[in-house]
Amino acid sequence: MTGFAVTIAPGGPTFEVRERERILVAARRAGVWLPFECGWGSCSTCKVTLVEGEVDLLFAGAPAVTVRDARRQRILTCQTTPRSDLVIKPLTVGSVPSAERPTTDHTGELIGREELGPDIRRFSFRLERPADFRAGQYAILHLGDGVRRCYSMSNRPGSPLVEFVTKRYPGRLGSERLHGLPLGGCVELELPYGDMWLRPGSRPVVLIAGGTGISPVLALLLQLHGAADPRPVQIFYGANSRAELVCWNELETLVAGLPHGRLHGALACPDTAWPGASGLVTAALAEHLQAADAGDHYLAGPPPMVDAVLAHLRERDVELTRVHYDRFG
Ligand SMILES: Cc1cc2nc3c(=O)[nH]c(=O)nc-3n(C[C@H](O)[C@H](O)[C@H](O)COP(=O)(O)OP(=O)(O)OC[C@H]3O[C@@H](n4cnc5c(N)ncnc54)[C@H](O)[C@@H]3O)c2cc1C
Ligand code: FES
């Protein structure tokens, strides 16, 4: 064995974790199914008790890590690598993959890079086999030297292609690496993750995106469009400027093909020709979302936008069980 042995207590299986590898990834590779959800450190689902051994925490500031965790010897298997052989105690362990979370590892070759707006691009990767995901879910991309970042698929599943609408933040680690990848370059991807997939039913659908939150919303809209879904669908999309409201024409075309679809935009810095709402996406929600529209809500974007929309929906007594969201950070 070249790595470390990790044993599940009490008396559970033992599997190998390679040097600097995450416990969760190694367990999945070995067919040991530990609980997980987000895969990157925000949900706490993968928390286990460290019974014996030494570890390195790979994302000490992960949202799911609390000060009590260190005292109680609790670690996130998705963001921890062993420094010695370990014994860990999870709440549950399975021997078959969960049908809900069929996450697997892929290699993707960058075959397309489309300029959509200022520092905003759509990346297309060809995988070695068709990807099993639901519209609205995300992948974790390995961008070198242990840097992993989440990106939501913007295309429909069922082919070996995965696409992502992403923004480059100058000087920041993950997005610079992704935007610097040459055509023909390869990345490792884990997918799918996330719970922002379309629930069946007859209730109206409300899709809300801020900035690159349009990536999963585009995938959801493609699914609704492909199925000629009869539900009323409203899309609310906010960005800073008209140039950053990327994929707008694509959205208009898709919405026009829905039996009952409406598209609303909001710009924080509108020009004089902009006919939509001014301000944050909550301004468009306040203007157009009637109480009668209450349905299933799906939202994605930067944390301040997601928090503002959640507060807005709460004020309107929208049941939180009908709100599915991805906070991009
Ligand atoms: C579920 C989800 C879906 C997303 N989908 C998209 C998308 O479709 N398009 C898009 O442009 N962006 C998306 N993002 C945002 C994206 O993952 C990056 O946060 C963004 O590209 C900025 O990364 P950065 O490394 O350039 O910036 P940085 O400021 O270096 O890092 C930004 C974020 O990375 C996370 N992070 C830091 N260290 C670690 C670590 N060790 N492991 C894991 N995460 C870490 C933190 O959340 C931090 O807020 C998504 C984020 C999440 C959580
Ligand atoms: S799987 Fe969500 S914190 Fe680890």
From TrEMBL:
2Fe-2S ferredoxin-type domain: residues covered = 4-94
Q: Which UniProt keywords apply?
A: 2Fe-2S, Iron, Iron-sulfur, Metal-binding
Q: Provide the leader sequence positions.
A: none
Top-level taxon:
Bacteria
Q: What PROSITE patterns does UniProt report for this protein, alphabetically? A: 2FE2S_FER_1 (PS00197), 2FE2S_FER_2 (PS51085), FAD_FR (PS51384)
Q: Name one GO molecular function term.
A: 2 iron, 2 sulfur cluster binding
Annotated FAD-binding FR-type domain residues: 103-199
Required cofactor names: FAD
Q: Which CDD domains match?
A: fer2
Q: What is this protein called?
A: 2Fe-2S iron-sulfur cluster binding domain-containing protein
Q: Which organism is it from?
A: Pseudonocardia bannensis
